[in-house]
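Risk register update: the risk of archive-format incompatibility is retired. Evidence:
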Amino acid sequence: MKLVLSALLIVSQTVSQPVPQTAAERYKSIRVLKEIPSSDVIPVMSVIAGSLGVTCSHCHGAEFVSDDNPNKAKARQMIEMTRRVDQEFGGKGLITCNTCHQGRAIPPAVPLVQNAGWNRPPAVTALALPLLDSVIERYVTAMGGRTALARMTTRTIAGSVTRMNGRTPPGSGEFAATASFPGSGSVDTAFSYPPEAEGEMVLSFVRPLRVRELYPKLEVTRRERVNGKDAVAVAATTTRGAIHTLFFDEASGLLLRRYSEKTTALGQLPEEFDFDDYREVNGVQVPHLIRWSRADYQVTFTVANVK
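Archived output:
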C-alpha cells in the first residue's frame, strides 16, 4: 500500500463532514456501544485489552463475530457496568476498565500490606526543571543545527518493518518512506499494519525546525526515565488541541519518545513512539529505529538506508 501523510501539518478548514457510520451499522455482532462511530471500535477494544493486560484472543476466537467465548458476554456486561458507574460520577470518563484492572484480567480484591501509607517512601526534593528555550535549542542543536537541518528539504528512508500483536505470529516486510519540508510525504509498503504506526514518518523529519509552529503551547512538566535514560518531559499542544508529551534525553538533547492519548467511549487510549539508534546523515541526526506501541499492536521500523 502507498499512503500519503500530512499529520499535524495542514491548518484545519471548515468543511461539511459526512455522518460517520455507527458501530452497529458496520459490525452486526455488536451488542453494546452500538452508537459509537465504527472507526472507534478498534480503539475501544484496545483500551479494554490494555486495561486487562490481554490480547484480542481473550474474548475473541478465530472468527471475531462468534459468541462462543464466554469472556465476550462477560465483557459486554462489564462495559455496561463501567459506563453506568461512570455516569454516576458525572460521565467524564473517570471510571474506566483500568480503574480496577490496571493490567490484570482479574483485579485483586485484597489490598497489599506493602501499600500501607506508613510504608510510603519519603518525598524526594526534585531538581529544578530546565527552561523551555534551553530544552528546545538543545534539541535543535543535537539534531544537527538549523543550518544543516534547513539543507535537508527531502528525506527518503528504507528498511524493514515488523508487526507484533500477541495473537498471531510476528510478521515483517519492507518499507520505503519519503518526507518533504514543510510537511508532506508517503509510505510505500506491501506489508499490513495499523496506519497509525506511520504517524512519525513525516513529523520526525520536520519537527526540529517547526517545533514551535507545530506546537503553539509548550511547557516543561517533569523528569522521567525513558528506556533507561533520564528525560525531560515537555507537554506540547498542537494547533488542533491534541497534546503530545515529548521526552528529551537530558544527556544528548535528542527526542526519545512521543506519548499521546486518544479519547474513546471507555476512556483514554495511550500510544507511544520511541526513537533510537540515532546516526548522522549529511550532518543531521536520523533515528534508525522508530517504534509505535499501543495496547493492540507494536510496529517497528528499522532503517537501513537514508537518502
